[in-house]
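Researcher: Structure for this, please.
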Amino acid sequence: MEVLSTKEKIIQAAFSFYKDYHFERISLSQIAAKVGISKAAIFKHFKNKDDLLACMEEKVFAGIMRMLEQVQKKIDSGDDKDLLFYITVYLCQHIEYINFFNSVNATFTFDEFILKFREQGIAMFNSLFTDTGSPTNVDSYRIMLYIAVMLLEFIHRFSLSATASEKAGIESYARKAGDIISRGLCLNEERLTEERIGQLDTICIESVENVPPVDETFKALAKIVEKSGYEGVTMEALAGELGMAKSSFYSTYKSKEEMIFSLLRKEHAKILDFFLCVLEKAESFSEKIYVMYSSCMNYFYRHSEILEACKYLRFSSFMNKQHMEDFPCKDVIGRIWSIIFLQGDCPSEFPDFMKEIVFESFFLEPVYILLHFLKHGFSEKDIRESPAKIYEMLCFGTN
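Model: Predicted structure, token format:
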């Protein structure tokens, strides 16, 4: 049995806090208590907390790097399993890596990972980016983003709600995930025509014009999250961003959590009412799927200043199931779910376990694609075409 060094025990203890979706500030005292040492003993191995976080980040990259090197050898030798299978298995076994990165890196992008691995000699990513780090092709880049987000959703579901048999058969779950991403849902539904897609897009674009503007306090919250992550959000920071006295927030909210919860509730209410309005115009199950992607893409394209915060807070404790039980908008979310999946036009062959994943993807796919496209300066045309591309990949696959 391998005997771990104290330094490694500290790193493992720190990662243990991220096995659940944990986004509160984690102190060195908490980590020390888990190891069974004093806080002062940590400084024998790390200069400060930032040094510990840097070592944790290095461990994430090193672990994924070893996995990708092994995958590259297996693929080169004719292994019948593909990259998606191995990545899904590995990250389902190391959910703390995903949670850690989402917690400490507010502006995380998939580019960072892929370019770093390419620099280390992983050839499977060579075709995605030029030597300067720009995507070589918009369509290929969009496919990569779609696959990455769907993988996150499969892994997210596995960590939160996989059945006992799924957890015992992780490889079977990984194959299922890879098959659905590659081949699509294979539903017995006709493709939407370009003409109808254009009509639905017009409805979404016109409808978003009627949505009330984003609350100024939420905009300020978004700026802080983008600059400093969730840990940087304090009453003082928000007051400073708005040029107000911090006492004005303490008189309204008891805590940071109450403040964020209240702000999220207001923004969610507006977005969800917008979704309900657009869904009324959909005439089939396929159209419902499509307008959810299109309406979300158009909403956040219009309000891109809150993109980073919404992506970040999506993974925080505010969006876990336990917290959502008390969320004031849960009835509206339930109505949207019912309209899409329970009104009789949802195909019988639609897998039950995929409903939750697809529902989450209505938000995540447009948000991540839009964030990355705006970063690279892609055209409005490329952005406007994305809902149709997402719909095609979901229903008919990426191959």
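Researcher: Any notable elements?
Model: The first helix runs from residue 6 to 16. Residues 315-324 have pLDDT under 50 and may be disordered.
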